[in-house]
Please model this.
Amino acid sequence: MILTVKELSKTYGTKKAVDKISFEMDQPGVFGLIGTNGAGKTTTIRMMLGIIEKDAGTAEWNGKTISRETMSFGYMPEERGIYTKTKVLEQLAYFGQLRGMSHVDAKKASLAWMERLGVIEYKDMVAEKVSKGNQQKIQLLAALIHDPDLIVLDEPFSGLDPVNAELIRKLISELVQEGKYIVMSSHQMSTVEEFCENLVMLHNGQTILRGNLKRIKAGYGHTNLLVRTVGDVTPLALEAGLELLARHADETEFKIEGDDMAEAFLAKIIDAGQYPIKYEIREPSLHEIFLEKAAMPMTASKDESMDTTMGVPI
Model:
């Protein structure tokens, strides 16, 4: 199975909301569609699924235009999409029937999913009486009840407390192990780093980066150094040419020019009697890469961004 999105575009009035967005997913896993609010992520998803009309481009599943008639997909939008005055089990079964399930099968699947996500106690409660976090889980169940081939999650962790967020994390990992294709939209870069092997990064409706996450980060090399010591080593770091990036609660982060600089600094602090409790050399985070890319002039970022899977300019 393969998901192919090619040059999707959408304009509202004089604003280009999405400008020739392309990506491909040819194996199970989680694909990241990332960017800040207003970057064009939701518009791209809705064009891809045929919810709104596109100005140009194509979105296909196994060579056929994506629609309810050509494939089975589940979509969880960022905004709440459940019926607040209707009982939870009743509406989940209804959503299953809309996807072609019999009433019996839809109810059975609803109960199984509610048990799996720990919301079975709310089955006979109207949705408005359920907490926001559990409403989010119920909305996710509505997207999964019919066992779709493609699952599209728009900001799935928005508004979740740590306990419910961890539950959804585990569920997504299980879905990947079951061979599901998942497209995840998010502005939370740490979430994307956790799940996504491949991604498209959007800014102001344009692609500023795309490709394999590991290759993208490896291309930057080791640029960050996290240090935790008993004393403050910042003066020694600045003297050695390191740049102070951030002070965290119990460690300090510096920008380095490579492993040689990090090794030289390690020798320097040991000579000074400051033995490190933590000394971690790492690639930049996706958050840092995004800030760098988003700060570039749009014409330059479009020309210079590389598809790290194909090895050619976007």
User: Anything to note?
Assistant: The longest strand covers residues 15-25. Residues 224-282 form a domain with the Alpha-Beta Plaits fold (CATH 3.30.70). Residues 56 and 272 are 63 Å apart (CA to CA). The mean pLDDT is 89.
